[in-house]
């Protein structure tokens, strides 16, 4: 079920919501318009000195146990760089530097039966300080040879598209 189908009541007054379009709900009581638009996330692809790619194992749903790249949802007021640095610090306790933005990939984040539209902003980055350590939301991490990455169960289709582009140097999904 898409998120827009899951929402029944106005977040402002509690009145019933009516679906006006594929991304707009309107309250029948107070006329409040509630837009269901994508939530941006900030994630990074990190390589080590052997040209291997860092992946993390997801500790929580959705896609618990699948491989993912480190990152997470942006918070209000954050820039991409601030969000990416915060997420990687929270998950792996290392500091990073963004080298360049790879792209913005539409995706769905399934949570408790509702598919949330999201937009994965993904950059290439390098670790500048700290020792990798499993801290939050992940149960493990590992560097993989580029030839092995796409054989793995990758958590999100957008992340898989970004990894495919990164490894093949071909833009197809951006
Ligand atoms: Zn209302």
UniProtKB/TrEMBL annotation:
Cross-referenced Pfam families: NUDIX (PF00293)
PROSITE patterns hit by this protein: NUDIX (PS51462)
UniProt keyword annotations, A-Z: Hydrolase
Species name: Candidatus Woykebacteria bacterium RIFCSPLOWO2_01_FULL_43_14
Domain Nudix hydrolase: 37-167
Coiled-coil segments: none
Record protein name field: Nudix hydrolase domain-containing protein
One of the GO biological process terms: DNA-templated transcription
Cofactor (UniProt): Mg(2+)
TM spans (from-to): none
GO molecular function, one term: hydrolase activity
């Amino acid at each position: 079920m898409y998120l827009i189908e899951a929402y029944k009541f106005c977040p402002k007054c509690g009145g019933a919501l009516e679906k006006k379009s594929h991304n707009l709900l309107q309250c029948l009581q107070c006329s409040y318009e509630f837009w269901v638009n994508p939530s941006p996330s900030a994630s990074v692809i990190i390589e080590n000195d052997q040209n291997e790619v860092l992946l993390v194992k997801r500790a929580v749903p959705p896609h618990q146990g699948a491989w993912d790249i480190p990152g997470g949802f942006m918070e209000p007021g954050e820039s991409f760089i601030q969000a990416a640095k915060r997420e990687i610090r929270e998950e792996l306790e290392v500091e990073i530097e963004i080298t360049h933005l790879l792209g913005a990939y539409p995706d769905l984040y399934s949570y408790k039966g509702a598919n949330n539209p999201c937009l994965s902003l993904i950059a290439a980055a390098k670790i500048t300080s700290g020792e990798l350590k499993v801290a939050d939301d992940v149960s493990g991490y590992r560097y993989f040879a580029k030839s092995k990455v796409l054989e793995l169960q990758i958590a999100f289709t957008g992340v898989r598209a970004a990894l495919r582009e990164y490894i093949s140097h071909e833009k197809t999904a951006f």
